[in-house]
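User: Show me a protein chain along with its predicted structure.
Assistant: Here is one chain, sequence first, then structure tokens.
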Amino acid sequence: MMSGVRKKILFVVMDGLGDRGCASLGGKTPLEHTQTPNLDKFVRLGNSGIMDIISPGVPPGSDTAHLSLLGYDPYKVYRGRGPFEAAGIGLISRPGDVAFRCNFSTVNDKMEVTDRRAGRIKEPETTELIKALSGMVIDGVEILVKEGTEHRAALILRGEGLDPNVTDTDPHDLGNVLTSVGRTKNAAFTASIVNKFVRTSYERMKEHPVNILRRKKGLPEANILLPRGAGSFPDILPFPQKNMMKAACVAGVGMIKGICGVCGLDVIDVPKECTGGVDTDMIIKADVALKALNKYDFVLMNVKAADVAGHDGKPEQKCSVISRLDDMAGRLMEMMDGNVVVAFTADHCTPVSVGDHSGDPVPVTVYTEGMVSDNATKFSESGCAEGRIGRIRGCDLLQICIDLANRSEKFGA
């Protein structure tokens, strides 16, 4: 083991932060356009670079991205997003289960999706809608479903003969609801259960009192639940055992909590102000993460807001979110002691011009006391590219921070 004081590690994952040039911002990205004095100070004092979360040109999901950031090879351990989403909201898979992530969505009478997020409906309305779907059994398969953050939910199929190799029913855009198809002969039965569940969800929710009231208010109805990301529970060596660090997660989104929980990190409850949406209180979340560092060696904090603005195609809103993220960075700078290695980065780019994840590299800055600084001065896609870290993979970041924290094992004699 390397000599010296062993430091704590804080990962600040600003979900979907990276972007591409926006015409409305004069060709700059939201990061390039926005003043970020606190993040820039970390850049000037630390080392920066850009990072391909999976590999160049591969758009990561938030699930595979966080697996990579936690030091795992997603190609070896990933079994679909559904189990992580389910675990994050308290639905724990068993061997043989098939889990899905779902969206409350809006369809017309032709089963055409008109709003994939049902106006970003959230609790308590989603809680009431889920009650209408509880207790279902389809062809001998038990149906377990639970609401998540905002328009999200999770679904578990439990029974004999299930196979996760099925396609999504969510078209991932506006258009017709898709029919789930088994990718293998053994998965045909599972696909038939999914299709029957989707149809039943529409039948039970379309005239639900929640939707009748939303219709009167002119709001998009949440009249169908669309599963996607089927998967089985992965076999993962727990992060604390793999890295010899006591670890925790601070997040507002169920799927992130699920990934971290499955990887063996303790999931810390956050106050209700930490919503996982654009309205989240980032300062409170930073305080929770700082407090966790008193007990844990490694803390991952995820802030979702920039991703929401990217998906919604709102560059000005993304700039506003970035200003608040910079305030959060200022809070960390004010309260953090010298025995912490902090990394600021994103799990993927969500360009507002695309409205979805892209394969562009994300900016990354790492700081701890005593570092040799580099020539980078601005926390942005172009600014961080000037730093000495260069271009790395997502799975490399953890080892860089472990080394800076004086926790590395020497390779060789």
